[in-house]
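Worked example

This section walks through a single chain of length 359. The input is the sequence exactly as stored; nothing has been trimmed or padded.
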Amino acid sequence: MTQVVEHPSSRTAGGAEGVPGPVGERFDRAALIGYVAFLALLLYGLAHTYWALGGDGFPFGADDANPEYSAFEHVGRDRLAPWIAGGFLGSAAVALLLALPGRRRIPARVLVGASGFSAAAVFCALADFRILGNLAYVFMLKFGAINWTVINQLFAVVSVGLMLASAIVYQRRTSGACTGCGRTGSGAGWTTPEAAARWGKRAAWTAVAVPLLYASTRWAWALGIPLGISEELWEEGKEDNLWIAGAALATMGALGSLLTLGLVQRWGEVFPRWMVGLRGRRVPLSLAVVPATLVSVMVTIAGVMYIRLHFQGAFDNQRDDWGATVPEMIWPVWGIALAAATLAYYFRRRGACRRCTRG
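Given that input, the structure is written out below as C-alpha cells.
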C-alpha cells in the first residue's frame, strides 16, 4: 500500500478540512488586507509625528477647518498630534501582528479588541457627518465643501476599516474557520440563508423607517411648516433657501433608504424588466453590498457626532429647535440596521465558498 504524505502547507490552522492554514496563507489575498492596513496606519502615524514636531497642515482639533464639529475643538496641535500619532502607530503594530502568518502569543480576542477600539476611536472622535455631507454634495456636483480635514477623515476611516477586516480574517484563521467565508462546517445558526432572511427583513424595514422620519422634518420646512423649530429659525433659513437644499438632501436620503428594500426584495437579486440590457440578469453581490456597507458606516459616524455634540452642550441653546438635531441622533439606529440588512443579504446570496467549498 502506498503511503500518502500530507504536505505541511495543506494543513489547517484549526484542523478544519478545506480551510487554508497559516503556511498556505502567506500570499493569500485575505491576509494581504492586513499588510495594506499596516502600511496605511504606519504612514498616517508618521504624518502625525511630523505634525507633532511642528510641521504644517495638521487637520484636527483647533486647526480643523470647522472646529465647532470637532471633539477637540479647543485642543491645539502641540497637545493633540502626539496622542493621535501614538494611536495610529500603535494600531499599525497591531495590524502587522494580525497580518503575519501563524498565531500570536497575544490572545486573538486582545488583538481583535484592539482593532475594534481603534476603529471606535476614529469613528467617534476624528470622523464626523462631513464625510456623509460631502458625498451628498458630490452627487449634487458641489465640490467646494471638500477640504483637507474631510480628506484626512476619509483616510483615517479607510485605514481602520482595513484593520477591522484584517482582524476578522485573523479571528477566522485562528479559530479554524474558513478565512474566506467564516464557515466552520456546522451548517446551522443565524448565518444560514433561512435565518438571515428572517432577521434581515426586520433590519431592512428599520433602515427604511429611520431616514423617512428625518426627511419628514426637512420636507415640512420646505413646505412652510416649521416642524420642530422656532418661527425665527425657520424665517432665517427661508431667507437663505436653506430649507430647499435641506429637502433636496433629505430626498436623496429617502430614495437611498427605499433602495434598502432591494436587500429583501426580488428586484435586489435580479434586475427588473424595465432595465433594458440588464433585465433578468443576476445583480452582482458586490453591487449591493459595497455601497450599502459604506453608507451604513457614514450614517453611523454622522449620528454619533450629533450625540457627541449633544453631550458636549452644543445644543443647549437650541432646545426649542429639536427638529434640527434630534432626528440625526437616531441615525446610528439607521446605520446599524442597514449594516445588519446588508449582512443578511450577503449571507443569503453568497453561495458556496470557492475556498472551502462549503455552501
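What to look for: The radius of gyration is 23 Å.
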